[in-house]
Each structure stands twice: as structure tokens, then as C-alpha cells.
Design a protein that fits this description.
The chain starts with a helix and ends with a strand. The longest helix has 18 residues, at 136-153. It has eleven helices and twelve strands. Helix 2 packs antiparallel against helix 3, helix 5 (63-79) crosses helix 10 and helix 8 packs antiparallel against helix 9. It is an alpha+beta fold. A hairpin with a 2-residue loop joins strand 1 and strand 2.
């Protein structure tokens, strides 16, 4: 994080540390911010090169506020830098492109190196990058905020929550999902009966080919939630850009039957039955729903295909 902010944003490590560290929490009789300001060894060893989890969350300042300040500083430096005369791209557009692209991939690699799942982080990046926010400044601010917060906390779940809450407070909307056109193939069809299975899992499909391994569905009463920002134990967040934060819930009922139900997703979910290839609407896209209508759970079974939005498909499989 510090290397990127220094190389791309031209912000020295010390300035970044003074922005993100708390001036209230005591550390050896001094606040983290004061100690970093006055001790170069401490700044380098215990802050800039700290390992994930080495600095407690309580020792950071308000990271949303700190990130907004860093974004402003970075935009000023970029506007006066070498890129100013070479391109018509504004500073905030540069920030949005960088933290929605190469910096995001670098952060995912860093998380993976420490055995932290970076999928949730990348999904949150895509939510911000694909949303129709009013300006590049808004996208740049949120993407940098997500980058800095994840870098400080080494916790994509907490970082996503902080950025989502900030977006909700400041913009009146959180990390929502952009609506896409689902086409005629997602028309409502008569629900077909499904045979209950003892244990089911999902196998992701990409361009008709299998991707990854079978993802077992939870047998617990809470079931499994599929969504871009789903973060519960056993939840699935390996999804495409148009899948909502919490898109679909799947669970096994007491009688052994399995059910899927939409969670008020933006782009809806359909099921293609494995036996007859009929298309069953689990939840229509938001623009196609009848006002006030509730969409009940739909039974699913082995060999069915779940289609979330237009980007994500899962084959339902029996798991031994």
C-alpha cells in the first residue's frame, strides 16, 4: 500500500502514516501518529513494513476520512505532475483507472500472499467501477478508500463495510449493483417439480466450461448466500459484475428438499431444470417485478443450472 501511494500518488510514507494512524490510542505512552512522526525507525519497521494484523484496527484513525484526504492530496500532486501536459485525463480519472485496475490486482496478490481471500476485495472494486456514479471523483475516492482501508486492516470484509457505509452516508447509496438487460431467455416459466437431494454443491460454469471445484452448500439452517459481497462462513462470492452483494440464498429444508430464494437482487435469478430444460424464474430483475409481489422459494435439484444476472452460472450437483 505504502509503495503504491508513494510511486503512483507521490505521497511520502510519513504523510500516509500520519493520515491513517490514530492520534488517540496510546502506544508506549505516545499515540501511533506521534510516534510515527518522530521516529523513522518505528515508521519503517512497525508501520510501513508491518505484517497483516500487526497493527490493531483500534490504532487507525477514521479510515474513510483519511482516505478522502489522501485522495485530495493525490489529485493535487497528479494535476501538477508529469501527466498534466501529456494527457487530458483528469487526476481523479487517473486515480479511478489505477485503483480499479493495476493497483487492485496488486492488492489481491498481496492478500493472497498472506492467505487472505482477495475475491471479496475485487468484487467490491467492480461494484464501484461499474456503478453509474456522478463523477470520476466519486469513483476515484471510493476506489482509493477501498484500497487504503484494505491495506491498513488486511481485512476485505471490514474494508468493504466501511466503504459501503461511507457511500451510503455521503452519496445516499451504497455499493449497489448496476442493472443489466437479461433478455428473453429469462422470461417466467411454469415451475417444475424437483427431487430433493441429500447433499448439494455448486459447480461454476464459464462459457459452457467447468470452472474450479464443487462448492458444497451449507447444511446449516442459515444455508448459503451467493453474492459479490457475501462474507458469511461458507458463502460464495466468486461471481460476475452484475451479481448483487447478497443475491441468492440456498438452504435445505427439514424434509431434505433444497430451495433457492432471491434476496432482492438487482438483476434477478433463473433456474434451468436439468431434466426438461424449462426456465423457472426464481426472482425477476428488479425492473420486471410486480409491485408488492413476493417471490417464494423455488425447489432445486441435481443437474439444474442457476443463472444469476447474465454473468454467472452454477450447475447444481449432488455431493457424496
Amino acid at each position: 500500500m505504502y509503495t503504491d501511494l508513494k510511486n503512483f500518488g507521490h505521497i511520502p510514507n510519513r504523510d500516509v502514516a500520519l493520515a491513517v494512524l490514530s492520534d488517540k490510542v496510546s502506544y508506549g505512552g505516545m499515540s501511533m501518529r506521534s510516534r510515527a512522526a518522530g521516529n523513522r525507525t518505528f515508521l519503517s519497521r512497525d508501520v510501513v513494513h508491518a505484517l497483516p494484523g500487526q497493527i490493531a484496527a483500534s490504532q487507525f484513525a477514521d479510515l474513510a476520512e483519511a482516505s478522502a484526504m489522501l485522495a485530495h492530496t493525490m489529485s493535487q500532486k497528479l494535476s501538477g505532475g508529469a501527466n498534466a501536459d501529456a494527457t487530458a485525463v483528469t487526476p481523479y480519472e487517473q486515480i479511478a483507472q489505477h485503483y480499479g485496475g493495476p493497483a487492485a490486482e496488486a492488492m489481491r496478490s498481496a492478500l493472497t500472499a498472506f492467505s487472505i481471500d482477495g475475491t471479496l476485495y475485487i468484487n467490491a472494486v467492480e461494484k464501484i467501477a461499474n456503478n453509474r456514479y456522478d463523477s470520476a471523483q466519486t469513483r476515484g475516492n471510493l476506489l482509493l478508500m477501498l484500497f487504503v482501508t484494505t491495506g491498513c486492516l488486511a481485512d476485505p470484509v471490514a474494508a468493504t463495510r466501511i466503504v459501503g457505509n461511507y457511500a451510503g452516508r455521503s452519496l445516499g447509496r451504497g455499493l449497489y449493483t448496476t442493472e443489466t438487460s437479461v433478455g428473453k431467455g429469462f422470461a417466467a416459466a411454469e415451475e417444475a417439480a424437483a427431487r430433493p437431494d441429500v447433499r448439494l454443491g455448486l459447480l461454476q460454469l464459464s462459457n459452457g466450461a467447468v470452472q474450479g471445484t464443487v462448492l458444497p452448500l451449507s447444511l446449516g439452517p442459515e444455508g448459503t448466500v451467493i453474492g459479490a459481497l457475501a462474507s458469511g462462513l461458507g458463502d460464495i462470492n466468486s461471481v460476475g459484475y452484475d451479481v448483487s452483494r447478497r443475491h441468492l440464498r440456498i438452504w435445505r429444508a427439514d424434509d431434505g428438499a433444497w430451495y433457492a430464494q432471491g434476496l432482492n437482487s438487482t438483476n434477478g435469478t433463473t433456474l434451468v431444470t436439468g431434466d426438461t430444460r424449462e426456465v423457472v424464474t426464481i426472482e425477476p430483475a428488479r425492473s420486471q417485478r410486480e409491485p408488492g409481489k413476493e417471490y417464494p422459494p423455488v425447489r432445486i435439484s441435481n443437474s439444474d443450472t442457476l443463472c444469476l444476472g447474465v454473468s454467472t452460472k452454477f450447475l447444481v450437483m449432488r455431493v457424496l
